[in-house]
Write a structure and sequence with these properties.
Layout: H1 5-8, E1 14-17, H2 22-33, H3 42-55, E2 59-61, E3 64-65, E4 68-70, E5 78-88, E6 98-106, H4 111-126, H5 128-136, H6 140-147
Parallel strand pairs: 1-5, 3-6, 4-6
Antiparallel strand pairs: 2-3, 5-6
């Protein structure tokens, strides 16, 4: 099964953020993800995201972070996307600021689909042309077009 990013990242889960810290970014993006009816407890989601970040930063480099959590209070996968023009310190593997944050919330029992989704997002964002289009994006529609 191929996972379409357009299908899994709806416009209401894409935000242009003016956050200045990793904490603010995680809190605000988790709140957006938690608006999905598939997320039954937003506080548990944010706590799980923080626990994952304590293990190792999800800043994978190239200006990208993919914070994620699989927990029982999420019924199906929900993905949110934030663009931060000025970039923030995310303690990324390459030490560079993060401009694009993709948050994945998923049910704790769907490991295979979770790995497929993570791989699809990572592959898409590692494409320099996609990152360039995202950097130039000024609206939610621009971001969604860049991700197609």
């Amino acid at each position: 099964m191929t996972i379409s990013l357009e299908a899994i990242i709806p416009p209401e889960r894409v935000i242009l953020l003016d956050a200045t810290t990793k904490e603010e970014t995680l809190r605000r993006l988790a709140a957006v993800v938690a608006t999905s009816p598939d997320v039954t407890d937003g506080a548990k989601l944010l706590a799980a995201i923080h626990e994952r970040e304590k293990i190792m930063s999800t800043g994978i480099g190239l200006g990208i972070a993919i914070p994620h959590a699989k927990i029982p209070s999420v019924r199906d996968f929900v993905v949110g996307f934030a663009k931060i023009d000025q970039g923030i310190d995310f303690n990324s593997l390459d030490g560079k600021p993060v401009h694009f944050v993709v948050m994945i919330a998923g049910p704790d029992h769907q490991q295979e689909r979770y790995l497929q989704l993570l791989a699809r997002i990572t592959l898409k964002l590692k494409d320099a042309a996609v990152r360039r289009r995202l950097a130039e994006a000024r609206t939610v529609d621009d971001i969604l077009t860049a991700l197609k």
